[in-house]
Amino acid sequence: MSKKVSLAKAPKTPKADKFQTPRGVHDVLPDDHAYFTVIKKIIRHRARQAGFRRISTPIFESKNLFIRSVGGQTDLIEKELYTFQTKKDGEEFALKPEGTAGIVRSFIQHGMNQLPQPVELFYIEPFFRHDRPQKGRYRQFHQFGFEVIGESDPGIDAQIIQVAHFIHQDLGIASKLKLQINTIGCSKCREKFTNQLRDYFIGKERNLCANCVRRLEENPLRILDCKGEDCQILASNAPKFENVICDECKDHHKKVLELLDSVDIEYNENPQLVRGLDYYSRTVFEFWDESEGAQNSVGGGGRYDGLVEQLGGNSTAACGYAGGMERIIAHMKDFRILAPDKDQIDVFVAQLGFEAKKVALQLLTALREEGVHALGALGKASMKDQLGKADKFNVKYALILGEVEVREGKVILRDMASGVQEVIPIGKSVEKVIKKLGKKSLDKYDPSKDLKKDRTVRPEEELLIRD
Ligand code: HAM
To answer: Does one domain contain both 180 and 265?
Structure first.
């Protein structure tokens, strides 16, 4: 005999879990997109002005690319890299924690050394670091960056710093930021200095934090920018880089500073600044909010003259910078800077009855084609609810249609601020609304002005993939 299952006693489906974003990552909601949009616009403008072209590299790349460039013993690689393996052949990949490595890989892969030098590239991309989440430190964040590959002149260092400074000025946050700058010399100066530092710190391990004891073995230079109080006291008496730096590196640094003076960019010479990525040589710099110091630097960069060769290319000098967009937004908000709201809806079309709905749809189409941001309630809401919605969207005008208006070829135009209404012919309503709004609030774009037919474009070149 088959067993009867009582439906009443059947186990209840567990209540679905409510999903949340993982720790340290965030949705970018529409209000914050207004900030991203204006920042991107300013970056694109400043980048194009200075001859940079945009590049995007993949979100994930070979894990070894990052180890070889950033350095296997840096925090970024040891603690913060998100890695995964393919199931089939166990190949190891990593989500990109920074942009320079991928761009140098791309420079070599696509033979960009054949292009007129230097090659100037910029990017605006998401990056991933398994940082401990806190203010200004996220696990997915956005950077914009500039890389100039193929020129060793100090003028490049100064120009990159100047572009970053202009962007901060455009965003209204420059007065809060101070450029910190240092030179860490070439590989030869660094080797000499590293040996001197090792000799100095050996025997003082008891006064160093655990991290710095490890750094003493791997990269004593990093002890200099440790935030630990005891480490800082010891570091203040450590051998000075100025005693080992070679004449060429000294001259390079002097010229970078003179060029910054010539374009009125203030800086603080900071001998403690070494940066946490291994690929740097000579110039290193960061922009700090002086109240927070190095903790939440808004951006940083420097020269990386050895990286192209280190990743398999020819010996090629290079310099770059990256800024953190979330940190910039935080500073803009501290300064009470409002990003322009391009999503403002100006007109609401309300309707009652099926015939009115048809006309409302036509009116919405005509308004939008003319560049008016217009919204309509095409559902079954009452007129009161529709006008309530228009109020919530803060629209300036509502066009109201019922069956009677449609029959008479009329529409009610309501000024939402004053509540004053007038009845006007449907055929004149779009023109009338545009006159009231003013031409400045129209959002018109004609893609055919940008997209032209050109016979020199061959079908295979339309593909973005170039293998
Ligand atoms: P970085 O100093 O590691 O440099 O990062 C640049 C900026 O990205 C930081 O100053 C900060 O604003 C932002 N940032 C870094 N980590 C986080 C995080 N966890 N959450 C939020 N924002 C963050 C580089 O990445 C180099 N690739 C810069 C460069 C380009 N050097 C030469 N070319």
So the answer is: yes
Give the domain range for residue 107. 30-186+246-334
Residue 452 belongs to some domain of the structure? no
Q: What is the residue with the minimal CA distance to atom 16 of ligand 1?
A: 137
Tell me the CA–centroid distance for residue 73 and ligand 1, in Å. Answer: 17
Same domain, 157 and 81: yes
Task: Note whether 167 and 112 are same-domain residues.
Answer: yes
- Enter the tokens of residue 71: 């350095």
**Per-residue pLDDT at 63 exceeds 70:** yes
- Residue 341, pLDDT score: 87
What digits encode the pLDDT tens for the residues 391-429?
Answer: 999 999 999 999 999 999 999 999 999 999 999 999 999
Is the C-beta atom of 278 inside 6 A of ligand 1?
Answer: no
Ligand 1 centre from 145 Cα, in Å? Answer: 9
283 and 150 in one domain? yes
Whose Cα sits closest to atom 21 in ligand 1?
137
Residue 102 CA, ligand 1 centroid: distance in Å: 14
Q: Which of 70, 137, 327 to mutate to test the pocket of ligand 1 (most atoms within 8 A of CB)?
A: 327
pTM, two decimals, is 0.89
